[in-house]
Design brief:
Length: about 625
């Protein structure tokens, strides 16, 4: 292929050309508008970078090929017959281009988000090195502020939320008997928006004045007056949010319209229920954080005063809008994990889920109640005092559906035939860590206690018990559980168990003591602290380093097993759900015959129970071979 042909075809050559072209178009628009209004100077680099942060990524996305089909359709060009050349992975190169196969997109999501997880983890290690002793060791206070801000933003917007989307992208269509997602091209675009957002956040370190340093909350009016690096955050969140919304809409349409015959809502696996409810949360809540960051961007770039108190701006309004998204976002980061744990526990304990329908109802209850608790983050903000009491009560109330799930998992484990494989270990670790995080959450709901520990390390401990001991433990459980399905290989069980125990022990040694220093008054988000906290901080930092190194075992296990692990059976766990009834990895279009669902997904130990059957095949009793094409 000639260079001219490569530049015309979608791919990395055209993407490399699209980057400067996008910046050039943005620069032209900016200079033209400034000339039209008579603003001087015509070339203002702050304005150019702001516009370029929007136009340059679109140049890349057009170049890589995300919009080719839609541009052709919009121009009225003749329809090109679908040859499926952009669907499925036949070589490793197919993972580095725009692909419409949900399985390829799922792996793209997972690998990309783990890259940002490592980047955020390295920043955490630098912070713990700085905090190992009082005083200044390695970084300045401003750099420290940038590190914890980018760390938190990457972990939330570029790891936890999208990695769940990646796992679901791979698994959900298979679970419901669909050949793909409802909108494959939108699915591809939603993935490619993600690395754009993450790279933008990392590049903020190169901006004059350093990276954004207002935390992942980016409170105004502080964020209105920060250096240029703050704009990188404002724009990156828009790309990450657009990715989330596009993915959520895709999941909703796929789950509602593409279930296999017989797959009623009450026969859906709980992971499907979890992603259905999560998608509702994303679609409803994410526009609010987009709005909050647009308002800040307008304040910074266009001289507006939404949050400027000297110009009748409303400072508290930023927090209300931000937290109206960001507390539901906690459940966006938790509900998919609840679904994963339900699949893992039922499969590896060989028992039906206890209270299946109540588990589904509790997911819906969390969606509704999640929008009633946002102001418990604002007990010390100066908002109306009377609002604090109802927010305290709703915060306590939302523990009820969460408690239902925990008791259901424990009841499922009761007298089960428990196989303590790596996925099950991480699921059990999740129950322990999330319960502890939930207890500290109830404590934070109590107004006097919240006022006492507000902005201390107690809050840091709480959010990590919920989002790392909770969400990330479920992510590891899901990766290990579906690794054979995704790769066709088995992981090393011994290394997996060592990874779990190192993670479990040193996670608690890292974040457990933070409760103590927090109650004693050690403030968070500061690079230095009083000498009275030195001993516990040394223990925390040493534990954090070992905890971080334990992740290398996971990376080695996954990479080595993917390349050289023993071949996996189609259904190594003897699971009942549909994704395990095809080869590992699955065929490009998932099923040779459309399955028909005839029973529930968790009927382990029930004589004669069958979840689904394939065309022209007779159902067989659960526990017998599925080699004849029967989904047990």
């Amino acid at each position: 292929m000639t260079m001219a042909a490569r530049l015309r075809a979608p791919g990395w050559y055209r993407a490399a050309l699209g980057l400067p072209a996008g910046f050039g178009i943005g620069m032209g628009i900016d200079v033209a508008i400034r000339a039209l209004y008579g603003w001087h100077p015509l070339v203002d680099w702050t304005a150019l970078v702001t516009v370029g942060l929007i136009s340059t990524p679109f140049g890349f996305l057009v170049g890589i090929g995300c919009f080719d089909y839609w541009f052709r359709w919009a121009s009225g060009a003749p329809t090109v017959p679908e040859d499926h050349s952009g669907h499925g992975a036949r070589t490793w190169r197919d993972y580095f281009r725009v692909n419409t196969d949900h399985k390829v997109i799922g792996l793209q999501y997972i690998c990309t988000t783990f890259f940002f997880f490592v980047a955020g983890g390295v920043m955490a290690m630098v912070m713990r090195a700085e905090l190992a002793a009082p005083g200044t060791q390695f970084v300045s206070p401003n750099t420290f502020n940038g590190l914890f801000s980018v760390h938190a933003s990457l972990m939330i917007f570029l790891f936890i939320i999208p990695v769940f989307a990646g796992i679901a992208n791979y698994v959900i269509p298979l679970m419901i008997g669909a050949p793909d997602m409802a909108f494959p091209r939108l699915n591809a675009l939603s993935y490619w928006l993600l690395p754009v957002a993450g790279i933008m956040m990392l590049l903020s370190f190169l901006a004059p004045g350093g990276s954004f340093s207002t935390g992942w909350t980016a409170y105004a009016p502080l964020s209105d007056h920060m250096p240029l690096g703050q704009t990188f955050f404002n724009v990156a969140v828009q790309f990450a949010g657009a990715s989330s919304i596009a993915t959520a809409l895709n999941f909703l349409v796929t789950i509602i319209t593409m279930r296999a015959p017989g797959m009623t809502f009450w026969r859906m696996p709980l992971l499907v229920w979890a992603n259905f409810t999560t998608s509702l949360l994303v679609v409803i809540a994410t526009p609010f954080i987009a709005g909050s960051q647009f308002f800040v961007l307008f304040d910074r770039s266009l001289g507006m005063h939404f949050f400027d108190p000297s110009r009748s701006g409303d400072v508290l309004m930023y927090q209300h809008v931000f937290w109206f998204y960001s507390h539901p976002a906690v459940y966006i980061m938790m509900l998919p994990g609840f679904g994963i744990v339900s699949e893992v526990i039922s499969t590896h304990a060989r028992k039906p889920i206890f209270g299946y329908r109540m588990m589904a109802f509790s997911l819906m209850a969390i969606v509704v109640l999640g929008f009633t608790v946002w102001a418990h983050h604002m007990f010390v903000s100066g908002m109306f005092p009377w609002l604090r009491v109802p927010m305290m009560l709703t915060t306590m109330l939302i523990a009820v559906p969460t408690g239902i799930k925990i008791f259901s998992w424990l009841a499922t484990l009761w007298r089960g035939v428990i196989h303590l494989r790596t996925p099950m270990l991480f699921a059990l670790g999740f129950i322990t860590m999330f319960t502890l995080g939930g207890i500290s959450g109830i404590m934070l709901a109590v107004i006097p206690f919240d006022i006492h520990v507000s902005d201390t390390y107690f809050v840091v401990a709480h959010i990590h018990y919920v989002l790392f001991g909770g969400s990330v433990f479920t992510i590891f459980a899901g990766i290990y559980h579906w690794f054979p399905k995704m790769t066709g290989r088995m992981y090393d069980e011994t290394l997996g168990r060592i990874h779990f125990w190192l993670s479990f022990v040193f996670f608690n040694l890292t974040f457990g003591p933070m409760h103590l220093v927090g109650i004693d008054g050690m403030p968070r988000r500061v690079a230095d602290y009083a000498h009275q906290y030195a001993t516990l901080n040394a223990i925390i930092s040493i534990s954090a380093f070992i905890f971080g190194l334990s992740f290398l075992l996971f990376v080695y296990n996954i990479v080595a097993s993917w390349r050289h692990g023993p071949a996996a059976e189609g259904n190594p766990w003897r699971a009942h759900t549909l994704e395990w009834q095809v080869s590992s990895p699955p065929p490009i279009f998932n099923f040779d015959d459309v399955p028909t669902v005839v029973g529930g997904p968790y009927e382990y130990g029930v004589p004669g129970a069958v979840h689904g059957v394939f065309k022209e095949k007779e159902p067989v009793a659960a526990g017998t071979t599925a080699a004849a094409g029967v989904a047990e």
